[in-house]
Amino acid sequence: MAQTQPGTGFQKRHIDPDRVSPLVAALDSQDANPGVQRLRAWAEEALAVRSGERLLDVGSGTGSQTRALAAAAGPDGVAIGIEVNPSLRTVAEERSADSRARFLDGDAEALPVPDGSMDVVWCERVLQHLHEPGRAIAEMARVLRPGGRVAVLDTDWGTTLLHPGDPAVVRALTGAALNGANPYSGRRLVGQLSAAGFVVDDRGSQALLQDHRSVAWPLIRMLGEAAVRTGAVTEEQRDTLYADLAEAAEQGAVHMSVTMFGVVAHRPG
């Protein structure tokens, strides 16, 4: 399950240097998640990248998807990752030494490429962190040529499921995941892309499942502390839920998931 700390107003530009390693580890874990891999494979198939095309990866992180796009574009193509955090860009550049992918400093709401210069734009798990995601989508439309394609993949924290536990306490914890900038991003993608003038070609989704034999304690404790802090649950209720989850993990019976949605669309020619 993706764990980019929902409810914290996550902004990668302002990450302290000593927090970069944990973030890289979290992003690597997300890359390995079967649900993420399946949704990416669906989006890549729908985009049908051709050799020689110009590709832009908005919010490229460690560069894993930028490298995949570079491979699809071939030796005559261009694949550029846009990343606001310099430490992550360094990681991406180091990992991409044998790839044609390259990386630029830039913000999703002000992409550093000319109008109509791209054939394909990829944007994954970025809009959930933006208070004005429409500005980023408008930028994607600006940089795409007529007929250019876009794939936008994002989490919808309103779909968070957690079992077992008292339903009221579980609702309080999963509700704490809704305090981020744009927690319902996944369900809003179709409407936002349509409003920006894109034609929607396909839609997809995947549930990102946490291991049923363990508890994602960093995320659970973060949500639990937030719920106690706001008075949504008592410390006793929180601790009882923790015990229920720990017991379920011993029996291989934990369920924790959140759903990620994807939209593939094109700019009319």
Automatic annotation (TrEMBL):
Methyltransferase type domain sequence ranges: 56-151
A GO molecular-function annotation: S-adenosylmethionine-dependent methyltransferase activity
UniProt keyword annotation of Methyltransferase present: yes
SUPFAM superfamilies linked: S-adenosyl-L-methionine-dependent methyltransferases
GO terms of biological process kind: methylation
Keywords in alphabetical order: Methyltransferase, Transferase
UniProt KW Phosphoprotein keyword: no
Gene3D superfamilies in alphabetical order: Vaccinia Virus protein VP39
Record PANTHER family: 2-METHOXY-6-POLYPRENYL-1,4-BENZOQUINOL METHYLASE, MITOCHONDRIAL, METHYLTRANSFERASE
Record's protein name: Methyltransferase type 11
High-level lineage: Bacteria, Bacillati, Actinomycetota, Actinomycetes, Kitasatosporales
